[in-house]
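From the pipeline queue, job 12 of 40. The input is one protein chain; the requested action is below.

Action: predict structure.
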Amino acid sequence: SYSFCTLLFDTQKRKKKSGGKDGKMTESDSSSDLSTPASPLSPFSKGDPILPLNHGGSACLWSSVPDDNELENLTVILCLKSSYSRLATYKDLAQTGVRIILVDEQVGWAKDVVWKFIKADVRNLENLCEIVEKEVKKGGYKVDGVLTFDEYGVLAASVLGEHLKMDTVCPTTQHNVKIINMKSKLRDHCEKLGLSSPKSWVFNPNEEQDIPKEFNLTYPIVCKPTPGAGSAFVELIKDEASLQKYLHETAFSLSNMDDNSYWSVISDVKILCEEYIEGQEVDIDCIIRKGEIIYAKISDNRPVSPPYFCETGGIAPSRLPEDAQGIIMDQLERFVQSFGVEMNTAMHYEAKYDPVKRQSYIIEANLRMGAAETDCLNKTVWGYNIARNYVLLACSKEPRRCPHETPLSYASSTNFRPPSRGLLTRLDIPLDVVHSPYFSGATMYFTPGDRIETPPVGFKALGWMVCTASTPGEAEDALEDLSRFYEVQIDDVCEG
């Protein structure tokens, strides 16, 4: 079986038969022999399998897409390596000839997919610019662009891009980053523009505060850190007693975070409390150049299980009616235009659509490529490589537009949530699943021996899987069928 690694297959190598009675896809001949695991080869050879570096398990295959000669020999500075889930993305970029200079405190699992490493703390922006500029001059590197795939590297990428006088500053100016990344400021910005977003107010978790009377609070409400990402510490609150409990426990959790956690790069975390919006939550994955939307595709989020808002998977393309999608896209256009030509970014935009009010509400705008299965969904359904196009954008080259007006296929995904907390002893996807013509990709984030936590302590999924088919219903059925074979075992741990 394939364990604890990223598995992605080229869906374009399969023939999707629609002429049969059931319309199901069948496997076609492929240049890769899928009956046996791929052999370990150089991580920089085109078409070779990805090696799961520090996460054990068998070698695995990465989706093969046409080579992009424009990317060869481009040199980019990458601010923060992000989580292990980005390995496949960096592998793919390295295979095209992109040279990645990683700026982070540790190179870790990225050591075999980056070209150079510069040790620096992205929280200290002044020292960051000085260190990077010195190392770039010392190495004689010609830097073509600066970018990040991590929520907490966004401001650093902007600051560094401006300092190094890049022709294109990604994702946007420092001023704009501070508005968009700070959810409370994003709410204020939307209100000034007349763009619908949840009514909200901000708490400092380290101070005693009363609820503002003018808010006319109606429970339930949603509380979340600002800034923040990955639905961590996002919770549905039903009454004032629960609110006070949440504020106390979240303040304690954030103040006791490991130095290696995402939260260690944030110096000032506050709590955003906002009204709960009913309706369908959607993601829009975008490429934006000089304020123009080059690529934007909507996918639906699966329902979450309150009180927490941990992602459970998605459906692409969106099943919302065409008029509803038009309302959402109109709001996105207005939002992007409000920042003008200074917007040069990949963006993972999150909104909620209320079908009763026929209204779209902005939830978040993340100035980087979406995480988890986002990349796989866009490649599977639209044949679009967001990461490669973001590199072109950062290097002042023209990103490509999506060549397809209709989806190549339909996809459904699931996020494997841990059933309990404890010690992971097994996490596996059998080969029969991987070889299915409906399988598109999967990633497992943990290995046996890892400690697994559940909300409100831990919010990370164990992994994800994407299935694809020629109809939406088939994709859903395939995901349900193949998910049954996913294997996980977590043993209880006796607390000392």
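Job complete. The radius of gyration is 22 Å.
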